[in-house]
UniProtKB/TrEMBL annotation:
This is Pimeloyl-ACP methyl ester carboxylesterase. Pfam families: Abhydrolase_1. It comes from the Bacteria. InterPro entries: AB_hydrolase_1, AB_hydrolase_fold, AB_hydrolase_sf.
Length: 278
């Protein structure tokens, strides 16, 4: 990972990195992921764009302090402040934002509630429309202590099975290891269930009625075989946002970045090149 920089925010430490040259692009990850998923795409785009990666607090290499909330309201407010710290809060430097999963709700809240302005927004298999939250999420919310006290080997097996289920074509062992490793050990195990326990649909309910206000180029991309957030949400979301474009990717599940990397990379480059050109 290249996240060599830090941003201190309300006692949290956010790890981030920036490289490349050209118009700014900010990648937002979801749960239970990290910026690792977006790093190959950032590398590929860095010849033409200044790319920004960051791990939300409670995820990846950022701080996982047990007394800090990691809910969507906190992350949305943080993103707006992080963009300002990067100098991306002025009209001539508005970033293109590419968001996956929870990152969709985070970027939408930052924009609609906290004034973060974007040049364009790409929403990839995002959490944005009710209802959401799997039965597993609901079980963790009811009894988080039953999971935080699991034996480490049982916890690892559970996380590996859960993460693997997000792919349609199957994950390489090295990729599965990379996605699971941040959640191992006592700190990682507690953080894994903490973010689930704090998942609350009210944070999307607050902004969902305002999607019709979005006045910027928006691209919705979805894996046709996404079992975590079914593809009907893609059609609903694109219909809700004025002028949104919709791209459905065949043979891809929720982890579209790993299931169909070439197709996603090609579509992202085409979109960013076109919206940057005006």
């Amino acid at each position: 990972m290249r996240l060599t920089e830090t941003f201190d925010w309300r006692g949290r430490t956010v790890r981030w990195a920036r490289w490349g040259s050209g118009p700014p692009v900010v990648f937002c990850h979801g749960t239970p992921w990290s910026s690792w998923l977006w790093e190959p795409y950032a590398d590929a785009l860095a010849a033409e764009f200044t790319v920004h990666l960051w791990d939300m607090p409670g995820y990846g290499t950022s701080s996982m302090f047990p007394d800090h909330d990691v809910s969507l309201d906190v992350q949305g407010e943080l993103l707006a402040d992080l963009l300002a710290a990067w100098g991306l809060d002025v009209p001539e430097r508005r970033p293109h934002v590419v968001a996956h999963d929870y990152g969709g709700a985070v970027s939408l809240r930052a924009h609609l509630l906290h004034g973060a302005a974007y040049a364009s927004l790409v929403l990839v298999d995002v959490v944005a429309l009710a209802p959401w939250g799997s039965p597993f999420f609901r079980q963790v919310r009811r009894t988080p202590e039953a999971f935080t006290t699991l034996a480490p080997e049982i916890h690892e097996s559970l996380v590996r099975t859960y993460v693997a289920g997000a792919s349609h074509v199957g994950l390489r062992e090295a990729d599965l290891d990379a996605l699971v490793t941040p959640w191992l050990g006592e700190t990682g195990q507690h953080a894994f269930y903490r973010q689930m326990a704090q998942a609350d649909q009210r944070y999307t309910d607050e902004v969902q009625p305002r999607y019709g206000e979005l006045d910027l180029p928006v691209l919705v991309v979805w894996g046709r075989e996404d079992t975590w957030i079914p593809v009907d949400r893609a059609h609903r979301l694109a219909q809700t946002i004025p002028g949104a474009e919709l791209e459905i990717v065949d043979d891809a599940g929720h982890l579209i970045q790993l299931d169909q990397p070439a197709r996603l990379a090609t579509r992202l480059h085409r979109w960013l090149a076109a919206t940057s050109a005006g």
